[in-house]
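TASK: fixed-backbone design
INPUT:
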């Protein structure tokens, strides 16, 4: 009787360890950062740039869409350049501790003129904030066929 009880207990412990031990050995994808939407993300100094994309009808001009979060204690200026050879710098002011959503109804559109990019392709862009090292990103160029982008094309 004691042997049967001990065997049952050992089997129960073995099943419990076997069923729960896979999380010790398996890669956890939820620990990785990823871009859950159509755009790309970047961090430049105290500015967190999220869901960066450009909406364009013809690939000539495009509207810059993104969320900028200033995690610093000082106001910051984000400089944006686009294209292979660069362009004039478009500057965007973000107050300390604030979030700015470009492409929302509350904000004025930031139109990038002469992007010369294929709709459905990628536009090379450079982002710079203060003295922090700038970053190059390949930003998707989308058209306004989707309802959420219908009002964003220039």
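OUTPUT:
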């Amino acid at each position: 009787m004691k042997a049967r009880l001990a065997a049952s207990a050992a089997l129960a412990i073995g099943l419990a360890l076997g069923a729960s031990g896979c999380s010790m050995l398996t890669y956890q994808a939820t620990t990785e950062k990823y871009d859950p939407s159509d755009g790309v993300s970047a961090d430049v100094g105290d500015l967190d740039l999220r869901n960066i994309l450009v909406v364009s009808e013809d690939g000539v001009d495009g509207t810059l869409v993104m969320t900028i979060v200033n995690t610093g204690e000082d106001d910051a200026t984000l400089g944006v350049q686009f294209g292979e050879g660069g362009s004039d710098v478009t500057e965007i002011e973000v107050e300390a501790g604030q979030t700015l959503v470009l492409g929302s109804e509350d904000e004025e559109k930031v139109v990038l003129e002469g992007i010369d990019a294929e709709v459905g392709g990628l536009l090379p862009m450079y982002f710079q904030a203060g003295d922090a090292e700038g970053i190059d990103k390949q930003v998707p160029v989308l058209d306004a066929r989707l309802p959420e982008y219908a009002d964003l094309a220039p």
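COMMENT: The longest helix spans residues 2-20.
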